[in-house]
Amino acid sequence: MVFQQIVQGRSRNFAYLFASRPGGSGFVVDPGPDPVPDRLLEIIRDLRVSVTAIILTHHHADHVAGTVALAAATGAAVHAHAETARLLSGRVRVDRLLVDGATLRWEENLAAVVLATPGHAPGSSCLVVNDTWLVTGDTLFIGDCGRTDLPEGDAAALFRSLQRLKGLPDHLAVCPGHDYGPVPIRRLGEEKEHNPALQAADLAAFKAIP
Ligand SMILES: [Fe+2]
């Protein structure tokens, strides 16, 4: 297996590279701001990975800015939720739509299950990769969650999405969309213990988190 977490830009975005093995095929999540594609491409070349998919967790510019360049360099198909495709409104061409519950596969040992998790953005999506990693975009951070005060944000939807993530197994490694926490990756079980966004008992308590 190949797993790489790449920090990028002033907002400390995380891009991810997953592949079946060095020399195998795989996908990139959220190729963010330039010049990140250069760094990503270097890693992709070093590991001889054939990137067949770019998966966007949502439409915000800091998560998608490198998509066109990376797709041109690799030939990868861009995957995003229908709402993300709509909100990108042509800035990035989306080739395939992410559907809740769908499983995407690469070779015999790499699979990503799609979870639609609206709230931070209407098309926000998370991925469970190989029952090991939980890629959360801006839905869940280490110790925090995404904001909902942007134009398309919806606190009630985010609360429901976080409750859904809370129902996933503790062993999953949370891979957030930004390096905002005390550590870059943490087990979901620890988030359930320490993250106020996962501890709120109801929507009112969730909205009251400072
Ligand atoms: Fe965002």
How would you summarize what this structure contains?
It contains eight helices and 14 strands. The protein has 210 residues and is an alpha/beta fold.
Using only CA atoms, what is the Rg? Answer: 16 Å
**What is the terminal separation in angstroms?**
39 Å
Percent of residues in helices comes to: 25-40%
Instruction: Work out the helix count.
Output: 8
Strand segment tally: 14
Q: Characterize the overall form.
A: globular
Q: Which stretches are low in confidence, meaning pLDDT under 50 for 5 or more residues running?
A: none
- The CATH architecture assignment turns out to be 4-Layer Sandwich
CATH homologous superfamily assignment: Ribonuclease Z/Hydroxyacylglutathione hydrolase-like
CATH class: Alpha Beta
Strand order of the largest sheet: 1-2-3-4-5-6
Count of individual domains: 1
Mean pLDDT: 96
Q: Which band does the percent of strand residues land in?
A: 25-35%
Please, what is the oligomeric state? Answer: single chain
Bound ions, cofactors and other small molecules, one mention each: fe (ii) ion
Q: Quick one: biggest sheet?
A: 6 strands, mixed
